[in-house]
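Re: the request from the purification team.
They wanted to know what the chain is likely to look like in 3D before they choose a buffer screen. I agreed to run a prediction and write the result into the notebook, where they can find it.
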Amino acid sequence: MVIKVFLASLSGSTAKQQDVVGFLEALKIDYAQLDIASNEDNRMWMRENVPGEKKPTNGIPLPPQIFNEEMYCGDYETFFEAKEDNTVYEFLGLTPPPGSKKKEIVEAEQNGDAHIAELEEDDPDKKAETDAQDDIAEEEEPAEDDEESRKPAEEEEQEEGEEDRAEDELVSEEEEEELRELEEEEEQASEED
């Protein structure tokens, strides 16, 4: 089975397209890039084979669109969700390689809590999918600071906000005083007349 990724070489959504292609390469999944900008047959096939309920309101699906042979898998948003949920193989209609992480919800009957247990086989390639996701996530998103370094920044922002409000109040008080002085001057001027 070949995964087909319909792309547009002249598209504004190249980052999304590269995200899909880069992730497939990282997982060593065979795929074919089909350009809809330079090949009318590819464009027509893609438009005809995206299910009606998956098409946008204008009826024209935008790349990237992903298929497993003739089976529609999804667009970038559904691909991204599968990537986040660690279910890319299922999304693509492929059998995960031995050692891939799978998540299983386990109901604890004694206390009624649901737990997620990650099951891994003993295989040197067992982290391939997760490692690929981590690598791509590191490229896309800046590393999150730990909680301790975020607290001072949050406190600093709060203090700055309080200082801004205090300045606004000070300006308001000064304006009020100027208005009072003007009113007093006008009263004095009218009394003199």
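For the purification team: The chain is about 50% helix and 15% strand.
Please add any questions underneath this entry.
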